[in-house]
Design goal:
The protein is α+β, with helices and mostly antiparallel strands and about 150 residues long. It contains two helices and nine strands; from the N terminus they run αβββββββαββ. About 20% of the residues lie in helices and about 25% in strands.
């Protein structure tokens, strides 16, 4: 095998590995609704990086499997459930953080394995004020191309 063929093979292999990594760790999601305005608008396309729950932090925008109401209780689906609808919100507290005052139904610290999320446009957002803590296992990942600014005080 010539040096040129070996180099071309190495490049093709590197591209294949990179593409496999991207497919396993990155997902694109289209935003619906106005709950994250002005940071995100309806029809924006965002890149979501799949990460373990312990790598999430307050201020990040996350995509998670939205809960649904069944017989008066919120039911959560894991991200792999094909019937799951996606929701996108900003993390305002992670496990061990105090529950924010905006989430009036709870006090104390956020329990282990959970996060608290709020929409940037609170008037148009169904978020932790309504359905409570989000289980980490329901989080698809964080939005890589959303504004990293701190949660706005409204």
């Amino acid at each position: 095998m010539t040096a040129a063929v070996a180099a071309a093979t190495a490049v093709v292999l590197a591209i294949a590995v990179w593409l496999a990594w991207c497919r396993a760790h990155l997902v694109t999601v289209v935003v619906t609704g106005s709950s994250m305005a002005p940071a995100l608008s309806a029809h924006d396309r965002v890149v979501v990086r799949r990460v373990p729950g312990h790598r999430l932090a307050a201020g990040q925008v996350v995509v998670f499997a939205a809960p649904f109401l069944e017989a008066g209780s919120w039911v959560w689906r894991p991200p792999g459930d094909l019937a799951a609808a996606w929701s996108i919100k900003r993390i305002v507290a992670v496990a061990g953080d105090p529950v924010p005052a905006a989430v009036a139904w709870a006090s104390g610290a956020v329990p282990a394995g959970s996060i608290v999320v709020l929409g940037d446009n609170r008037a148009a957002s169904a978020d932790s004020r309504l359905f409570g803590h989000v289980p980490i296992e329901c989080v698809l990942g964080y939005v890589m191309n959303a504004s990293p600014r701190a949660f706005p005080a409204r």
